[in-house]
Amino acid sequence: MPIYKTITVSPTTSVYIWKVTEPEEELSEGIVLTPHCQNRMDGMKSEAHRRAFLSIRHLLAITGYTDSDLFYDGAGKPHLKDGNHISITHSHNFTGIIVSQTDEVGIDIEMQRDKILRIAHKFTPIQEYRTLANTDAIIRKLTMVWGAKESLYKIYAQKGLSFLRHIDVMDFTFDDSRTVAEILYKGKKSHYDVEFLEFEGFTCAYALKLMGS
């Protein structure tokens, strides 16, 4: 079972990352899907998507949950029936979840690639990155900022929220591997802790909403 990494964020919050290497048949073993999720998977033309979908159900099992414990609201945000908080991500051959008994949480995994240079202006003031040493460093930093904003967006889950105008990630160094961020939307401000890790050309960002914000 290729659980790739487990991170204990706090006594009540953990991150689980899976590296998808198994064939679909192996990943299907022991997994019971709800009719809704079976229909979702049956509609996936890509085998890679189906394998990622199944691997997330294995991550759920590691945390003591089954597919039937998971539901989605009208905004597409996942929830657990027992009231605990969950966020889900997948990118290529990596999938991940973050589960918390106490905090609203979001997670995102992204492949580090130069495509991000072309879309950076849509989510961050790109001129702020010109001091970095080289293009690889800019790609790494932009991917971290994109992942942070994506994880916050997953927590907030409101239409109209702009990565560029409403989500502000405070600057950080690569050595920090963490930062803070805030969302200011429709006159309401909320604050978040964000942490990062990098592995095999991917970046994972996960965020916790700070209490009282």
Structure, briefly:
This protein is α+β, with helices and mostly antiparallel strands and 213 residues long. 26% of the residues lie in helices and 34% in strands. Residues 105-206 form the 4'-phosphopantetheinyl transferase domain.
Could you characterize the architecture of this molecule?
- This is 4-phosphopantetheinyl transferase.
- InterPro entries: 4-PPantetheinyl_Trfase_dom, 4-PPantetheinyl_Trfase_dom_sf.
- It comes from Flagellimonas aquimarina.
- It holds the Pfam family ACPS.
- Helices cover 26% and strands 34% of the residues.
- The chain has 213 residues and is of the alpha+beta class.
- It folds into two domains: 101 residues, Ribosomal Protein L22, Chain A, CATH 3.90.470.20; 103 residues, no CATH class.
- The strands form three sheets. Strands 7-11-10-9-8 form a five-stranded antiparallel beta sheet, with helices on one face.
- A hairpin with a 2-residue loop joins strand 5 and strand 6.
Q: Mean pLDDT score, rounded?
A: 93
Assembly state: single chain
Question: If you compute it from the alpha carbons, what radius of gyration comes out, rounded to the nearest whole angstrom?
Answer: 17 Å
β-strand number: 11
Q: Based on CA inertia axes, which overall geometry fits? A: globular
The biggest sheet amounts to: 5 strands, antiparallel
Instruction: Give the domain tally.
Output: 2
The fraction of residues assigned to DSSP E strands is 25-35%
SSE-based structural type:
alpha+beta
The number of helices is 5
Order of strands across the biggest sheet? 7-11-10-9-8
Distance N terminus to C terminus?
38 Å
Order of SSEs? EEHHHEEEEEHHEEEE
Low-confidence stretches: none
